[in-house]
Structure formats: structure tokens, C-alpha cells
Design a protein that fits this description.
By secondary structure, the chain is α/β, with parallel strands linked by helices. It has two domains: 192 residues, 3-Layer(aba) Sandwich (Rossmann fold), CATH 3.40.50.300; 66 residues, no CATH class. 33% of the residues lie in helices and 24% in strands. The chain contains ten helices and twelve strands. It has an eight-stranded mixed beta sheet with strand order 6-7-8-3-9-10-12-11, with helices on both faces. The chain has a four-stranded antiparallel beta sheet with strand order 2-1-4-5, covered by helices on one side. Strand 9 and strand 10 form a beta hairpin. The longest helix is centred in the middle third of the chain and has 18 residues. The chain is globular, with a radius of gyration of 21 Å. The structure holds adenosine-5'-triphosphate, iron/sulfur cluster and magnesium ion (MG).
Length: 315
């Protein structure tokens, strides 16, 4: 069953003193089933964070529909959306910004329970202890302030906050990008462990394709505000179809296969989202570009039951 269903989502940012718009999301349609991790990849500026922010209602959508558990949420008044915040949580890249520097960790961790009126004080203390256990921290940190914790510990506190009320959906926007390799691997294991315990879904946004491969069930590839390919992790990593997906993966493989023949990586500048090109948005950089690519945007083509691609090569 789908937990979240997004239909033709658009987010355009107006540019001051101009009629032009930044088309950050230009028609995203995507389902997130229950207990599923959807990895979102694509170059900087393709709209990954904006997509997460629309789902969390941190920004208003320009058009389209977002349905969470049968309730349309994209156009709900913010006061009516508030009750869904408990169910749609987020972990951002930088935990320093997410935690109040003037509060001790204990107070920070009490907040989600107090806000949602979840238990008396004794009960909350027990819940905090169990939360800390879940994110592999010991209770000696409760008396410290955020600046007295390492980056990895801080991100674990941010994760603890996000799972306090066992939400069905957590948006992870580059949650490991400020951490070293060891901490990244530990947190990926932690996310997987949390999902197996509480049965939630993740939207996992990352530039780290190894982490995406480790954690995701489904992978979505975005380019200039649109999805260009979507499939199971195996589809995307073993049999990618779109030339852009192949180029993204090439950068990962080239790093690993030193000495072997290099797969050509993507070159050229990404076009401006203010002035989107005619035809396929990728045509100016595509090694397999054809005449038709400059004239019309490709239709969706299924390559397997859950694997689809937007590319004229398969039309
Ligand atoms: N508040 C805003 N006002 C104007 N343009 C914005 C705003 N927020 C984002 N954008 C633009 O929308 C596009 C998508 O940005 P977004 O942050 O979603 O990309 P991203 O895929 O998350 O990139 P990164 O990988 O660098 O985090 C970019 O062109 C960005 O400049
Ligand atoms: S539609 Fe054409 S330009 Fe776009 S990715 Fe496919 S082959 Fe390349
Ligand atoms: Mg981003």
C-alpha cells in the first residue's frame, strides 16, 4: 500500500523584479509504499531538497497533489497539517542547525514527547533512555549541551528526535554528508535497523551512491526538476537505462575500478532551471543524443513492471 503518493508536483520559485521563475520541480509523480526506502539521486540543484521540503510543507507547492495515507496534504492549511508533523519527520544534513544550542540534550529529547503529549515525566525518562539505546548513545550525554558532542553523536540525537514518535515516514536529506566514512557506515546500519524495528519508510536523499545502494529498495534519478528514471535498486545499479543514470553511476564505478577502461562521465554544464531547454532536458550533455531529443520531451517507457525511464532511445 502507498504511504505517500505525489502527482505532478511543481515548485516554481519566482525571481524578484522579474517574470521569470526557477523551475525547481517540474512535474514529479512518485509513490512511496509502506516500509520502503526510496533513494533520490541527481546532481546538485536538480530539486531533491525542494521535493523533501514540499512533502514536509516547509515550502508551499506551486501545483500538484501530495497524498499521505489518503489525505491530500499539499494544500492543507498549515494549522490542519500540524497533526501530520508527528507522522512525517526529517533529518537534515547539519545537526548543528537542528538542535537548540542553549538546551541540554535531555531537554531536547523531552520535547517531542511533551509536544505530542506522550506520557508523564517518569514515562518520558524511560522513553528517552530507550531512544538513546536505539541510536547507540549512552545516557551520560543527557547532561551535555550540543556543542559538547561530536558530529556523529549530534546526528544520532537528531535521528532520535525524528523517531521518538515512531513516524511512518522520515525524510533524510543528506544525513551523512557531514560525517566521515566510519560514521556514515554506522548511521546507514542504524537507519536500516530502525526501519526493521518500526516499519517506517524513508525518502533518502544523497550524493553518496554507495549509501543509496546500501539502504534503498527503490531508486529515483532526478534531472532538472524531473524524474528521468526509477526502478528497484537492482534495476538502477545493475541495468540502468537512461544515459544520465549511466553517467552518474560511471562516476562511482570509475572511482572503484582504477586501471580499467573508464566509462565516460558526464560533461558540460547543467542547463538553467530558469530557462529549461526544448526537448529532453539532458540533450545538451547526452552522449547518445538524436535529432528528436532536441524537439520533444520523451514519454515514459516501462522497462520492467516497476522500472521506467524517460528517454527516446526506448520509445
Ligand atoms: N528559496 C529558493 N528560491 C529560489 N530558488 C531556489 C530556492 N530554493 C531552491 N532553489 C533552486 O531550486 C533548484 C533546486 O534546488 P534544491 O536545493 O532542491 O536542489 P538539490 O537537488 O537539493 O541540490 P543539492 O544536491 O546541492 O542539495 C536550484 O536551482 C535552486 O537554486
Ligand atoms: S532522450 Fe535523447 S538526449 Fe535525452 S537521454 Fe535519451 S537519448 Fe539522451
Ligand atoms: Mg539539497
Amino acid at each position: 500500500m502507498n504511504l505517500l503518493s505525489i502527482k505532478n508536483l511543481k515548485k516554481y520559485f519566482p525571481i524578484k523584479n522579474s517574470k521569470l521563475m526557477v523551475k525547481a520541480l517540474d512535474g514529479i509523480t512518485l509513490d512511496v509504499p509502506e516500509n520502503t526506502t526510496v533513494g533520490i539521486v541527481g546532481e546538485s540543484g536538480c530539486g531533491k531538497t525542494t521535493l523533501g521540503r514540499c512533502i514536509l510543507r516547509l515550502t508551499d507547492v506551486t501545483d500538484g497533489i501530495i497524498t499521505f495515507k489518503d489525505q491530500e496534504i499539499a494544500h492543507l492549511k498549515l494549522k490542519d497539517f500540524r497533526k501530520y508533523r508527528k507522522s512525517i519527520q526529517v533529518v537534515f544534513q547539519n545537526p548543528h542547525n537542528a538542535l537548540n544550542p542553549r538546551m541540554k540534550i535531555k531537554k531536547i529529547l523531552q520535547e517531542p514527547f511533551l509536544i505530542w503529549n506522550n506520557g508523564d515525566n517518569l514515562d518520558i525518562d524511560l522513553k528517552i533512555k530507550s531512544l538513546l539505546k536505539r541510536v547507540h548513545l549512552d545516557s551520560t550525554i543527557l547532561d551535555r549541551y550540543p556543542h559538547q558532542l561530536s558530529g556523529g553523536q549530534l546526528q544520532r540525537i537528531a535521528i532520535a528526535l525524528s523517531i521518538a514518535n515512531e513516524p511512518p515516514l522520515i525524510v533524510l536529506d543528506e544525513p551523512t554528508s557531514s560525517l566521515d566514512v566510519e560514521n556514515t557506515a554506522d548511521l546507514i546500519d542504524l537507519f536500516i535497523d530502525i526501519k526493521s524495528r518500526i516499519g517506517n519508510s524513508y525518502i533518502f536523499i544523497s550524493h553518496d551512491l554507495h549509501a543509496v545502494q546500501d539502504i534503498s529498495d527503490t531508486v529515483v534519478v532526478m534531472y532538472l526538476g524531473r524524474i528521468v528514471e526509477k526502478g528497484s535498486k537492482e534495476d538502477i545499479f545493475n541495468t540502468p537505462k537512461h544515459p544520465y543514470t549511466k553517467a552518474l553511476l560511471a562516476s562511482m564505478l570509475n572511482l572503484e575500478d582504477e586501471g580499467k577502461t573508464k566509462i565516460p562521465e558526464i560533461t558540460g554544464e547543467i542547463p538553467s532551471p530558469i530557462n529549461l531547454p526544448e526537448g529532453c532536458y539532458f540533450h545538451s550533455r547526452c552522449p547518445q543524443v538524436m535529432n528528436i531529443c532536441q524537439k520533444s520531451y520523451p514519454q515514459l517507457v516501462y522497462s520492467g513492471s516497476d522500472h521506467y525511464v524517460y528517454c527516446h532511445l526506448y520509445g
